[in-house]
Design a protein that fits this description.
The protein is α/β, with parallel strands linked by helices. It is built from 8 helices and 11 strands. It has a single domain, classed as Spore Coat Polysaccharide Biosynthesis Protein SpsA, Chain A (Alpha-Beta Complex). The protein binds cytidine-5'-monophosphate.
Amino acid sequence: MKRKRRLAGLVSGVLRVALRRRPRTAGVILAAGSGTRMGGEIPKQFLPVLGVPVLIRSVRAFDRCPSIDEIVIVTREGDIQNVEDLCKEYGVSAKLKRVIAGGETRQKSAFLGVEATSKNCRFVAIHDAARCLVTPKIVVSVVKEAYRHRAATAAYPIADTVKRVDRRGRIKETIDRGELLAAATPQAFDRDYYVAVAAYAEKKETSVTDDNALFEAVGQTVYTVNCGSDNFKVTTPDDLVRAEATLRARGEKENGL
Ligand code: C5P
């Protein structure tokens, strides 16, 4: 009996060490936008998709993801309390470290969010709350790629043929679709490296629309992980309909059950 207990203790000790080997990783969920393209009064991050707010769906994927140790949510100043309450209500506050106010741009909100993560996190995974169909599996894949290469992003092949046009909308060329991907989130990076390149961009007043561009600007290769086009960004009312249809196809019922 004693030997069995000692063996069980040894196994769980080894497991603990093995699990600790994974670098501590934070999720940063960006929800400080105004969501004006959605129309209506309520910002899109709070609109329900099959009964669960867009933001909570994103947070839930990170909360359930074994690669994520802590979560920072970036929202608008006036929504901080509401977000904290929602996280409690939907049972996704176990990993929640902080809910903070964002900046005027997505770039600024991401920087503030990463700075609010614990200093002992070696990696961060930044995610647009509006991509509420993200899954824990996608987060794991992107984060693992970042562990290998320091910088990685979710992305998916685009279905349309894309044209380069001039100022008057006249087609100049057709771009080879085989070379194009739509950048999505999460985008995961070595935390210290991110802070350095983001601070450098701020100093140089370089503006970017995603975090990959910060790394591209300093010549760092960003690796892509195909997350599939279901990980789209909910932007217009039509997107809400598409999101609900996709979730129903996954077998989800009302209220995310
Ligand atoms: O505006 P867009 O849809 O590109 O924003 C992408 C994500 O960044 C959204 O989840 C939005 O809430 C967030 N965002 C932010 N701070 C801003 C602007 C956007 O956190 N100032």
